[in-house]
Design a protein that fits this description.
Distance between the termini: 31 Å
Order of helices and strands: HHH
Structural class: mainly alpha
Number of strands: 0
Helix content: 25-40%
Number of helices: 3
Radius of gyration: 18 Å
C-alpha cells in the first residue's frame, strides 16, 4: 500500500472437523475534511475518531452505552436501565453496543450483565458483532 494504507491479518486457528471460523473486515478512509495543518496519520484526531467509530460498529466497546469512553460504569448501567424501561434514546452511537451479553437483543439481561460486571467482577461485555 501507499499513502498511509495498511492491512494486517492476525489470526491463528487449528481446525478440527466441523469447526467454523468467522472473520470481519472493516475498511475506511478519509479523502478530505481534515483540519487545517492536520496530517492523515495515526496521530490525526480525525483518523483516531474514525477508527474508534469503526471499532464500535464492529462491536468493540459494548457496555459503553452512553459513549463517554468508559466501559461498563455506573453511568452506563443507569443509562441502559432507563432505555430498557422506555426512558431514553438507547446506546450511542450504535444500538448493538447495549447488547452486552451478545444475545442479539438489548434488554434487561444486558442491564443485569453490566451490574454483575461492575459490582461483582462478573464477565466482561462481549466483543463480537452479532447481526
Amino acid at each position: 500500500g501507499g499513502d498511509g494504507e495498511v492491512h494486517h491479518t492476525h489470526a491463528a486457528y487449528n481446525f478440527t472437523g466441523g469447526d467454523t471460523y468467522e472473520v470481519a473486515v472493516a475498511t475506511f478512509g478519509i479523502t478530505g475534511g481534515l483540519a487545517p495543518g492536520e496530517n492523515a496519520d495515526a496521530n490525526s484526531p480525525t483518523i483516531a475518531n474514525m477508527a474508534l467509530l469503526v471499532n464500535q460498529w464492529a462491536g468493540f466497546g459494548r457496555g459503553d452505552v452512553n459513549n463517554d469512553g468508559v466501559l461498563g460504569n455506573l453511568a452506563d448501567i443507569i443509562y441502559l436501565a432507563q432505555f430498557v424501561n422506555g426512558i431514553g434514546t438507547g446506546p450511542i452511537p450504535f444500538m448493538h453496543l447495549g447488547d452486552v451479553n451478545c444475545d442479539a437483543a438489548v434488554d434487561g439481561l444486558d442491564v443485569d450483565a453490566l451490574i454483575d460486571y461492575y459490582f461483582y467482577c462478573g464477565a466482561c461485555p462481549c466483543g463480537e458483532f452479532v447481526f
